[in-house]
């Protein structure tokens, strides 16, 4: 590894360890502790496809319908979604975002936009585009790397510190 690639790995690792970076890109609670990731995911789905049944939501998100019912209950308690009967089939209840729900999502988007502008304020538009293209290429390289040998070596090195194998016997290193 060259000195430059070592420094790049350290810089990326430093970003990953920076608590502010984690707060920016890590799991978000929408600034409010009573909205967890599942609720945010459901709200974003309803923002895109408003008026879905619990079954449709469960299928799209690949979760049990009972899990969706609990999420909808909590969102409904906060006036972020409403349950409405389907006009075509009264046996089906559709879940729709309320005006407050749409506004909540817009506020979160605006906050994210403001934060990204602040984080990248020191870079010109051209530098931002260059950084974006470079990060996409690094991400693709990560997708293309076969980490199987690397992980095997790590596991074997770890096992070797704790166990010794000779003549078919396993000995524990204390």
Automatic annotation (TrEMBL):
Residues 5-140 form the HTH marR-type domain. One of its GO terms (biological process) is response to stress. Keywords: DNA-binding, Transcription, Transcription regulation. SUPFAM superfamilies: Winged helix' DNA-binding domain. Pfam families: MarR. One of its GO terms (molecular function) is DNA binding. InterPro entries: HTH_MarR-typ, MarR/SlyA-like, Tscrpt_reg_MarR-type_CS, WH-like_DNA-bd_sf, WH_DNA-bd_sf. The keyword NADP does not apply. Coiled coil: none annotated. PANTHER family: MARR-FAMILY TRANSCRIPTIONAL REGULATOR, TRANSCRIPTIONAL REGULATOR, MARR FAMILY. This is MarR family transcriptional regulator. It comes from Oenococcus sicerae.
